[in-house]
Amino acid sequence: MAQKKKAAQTAAEAAEATQAVQAAEAAHASKATKAAKAAKAVNASEAAEPMYPLDEIMQQSEALMGVKPEVLAGAYHSLPGGSLTVQEAKKQVQLFLNRKVK
After folding, report:
1. Does the predicted TM-score (pTM) go above 0.70?
2. How far apart are CA 70 and CA 21, in angstroms?
3. pLDDT tens digits, the chain, 102 residues: what are they?
4. Which of 49, 67, 84, 96, CA to CA, is 20 to 30 A from 77?
């Protein structure tokens, strides 16, 4: 009788553990889905942003980013020119300003 009780208890514990693992996997999948949706939304909003030539953004750098055109020139010194969004320019300027000096 005690063995049956232990076996039933072990089976119940195994079932609970399985349910806990399944719940954790479902939560992880839900988070991954939310992250993927957020990434798609960011990509869609970036795609919707207008592109401007680098020199045009440089002319407006103080109004857009609060930095002088020279800072933007330094941030894009080693990168190819062309068109970019204001958000891309801001991101590149922040990376440039936060670089460690060697």
Report:
1. no
2. 55
3. 566 666 666 667 767 767 766 776 766 666 656 656 666 665 665 558 899 999 999 999 999 999 999 999 998 888 777 888 999 999 999 999 998 888
4. 49
